[in-house]
């Protein structure tokens, strides 16, 4: 975790089922054990932080262990909260006669594809911007790869989109000013709301683009498809100037696993491990063994967690 030690915000990504949630939880436990105030956040709609810690985790901070808190972002709840916020924002901006119609339109928009994602994203931004001062470490357990990449590149896309909107409104406002012919710029609350959102996106982009503040960890298992997917994800994130510094190679067969069957698997696994070392020279690699059982309780999680810490120190 050497590289990760300097980071405040850590995103854990990877293909479905490779061990993202387990790794996020284990990483968070390791940080908390070292005395860092740590927050672990699940952004995957199919949550399992609660299952891992055997505690009900909801959309507000829940204490899990000493120095460790958890949040499961609930897309439905966030969507509702987000829509209420949008309505509040518009209150006073539109004529009272139109309020009902505008609310109807917003309700319809909130049922459209992408609305939950926008709400989830809004919460994610708020957590990064607002909780940073309360925590030393914020670990994000993300949904499988494609979703995460979209989420992480949204601030960039949204900034471009908002810039376009701002420009259009500015033109309209300038026209008004000319029309009124008094030279005073017109008050435009919508312009101000857009401007505020733009500033929020810019602030969050600054955090996730700063390698001293934010780290990206990918979890993979030594098999063909996870290797390919990791390669693509790293390339894609790089295009957006986001650098993946750490790879957790999970479920590596331990040496003591015996039998002919496992010997065969191990042989194949060696080839993949070599391929991983070959392909991912820019990343720090941490190897975690396959355990006899699922990582389903605190004791097993602690074992996983110390493996994670030691794997790093061994390098
Ligand atoms: N090293 C390991 N040894 C044994 N079992 C493991 C190991 N790592 C993870 N597991 C188990 O594998 C399963 C999948 O792990 P996990 O839920 O962390 O994956 P995920 O990447 O978060 O999955 P999803 O994409 O569904 O969110 C879990 O049952 C977990 O306990
Ligand atoms: Mg998961």
UniProtKB/TrEMBL annotation:
Domain (ArsA/GET3 Anion-transporting ATPase-like) ranges: 8-309
Among CDD domains, the record links this protein to: ArsA (cd02035)
Q: Which Pfam families match?
A: ArsA_ATPase
What would you give as a GO molecular function for this chain, any one? Answer: ATP binding
Domain of life, per lineage: Bacteria
Q: Which Gene3D superfamilies match?
A: P-loop containing nucleotide triphosphate hydrolases
In terms of InterPro entries, this protein maps to: ArsA/GET3_ATPase-like (IPR025723), ATPase_ArsA/GET3 (IPR016300), P-loop_NTPase (IPR027417)
The record's family statement is:
Belongs to the arsA ATPase family.
| Protein name (database record) | TRC40/GET3/ArsA family transport-energizing ATPase
Supply the source organism for this entry.
Answer: Halobacillus litoralis
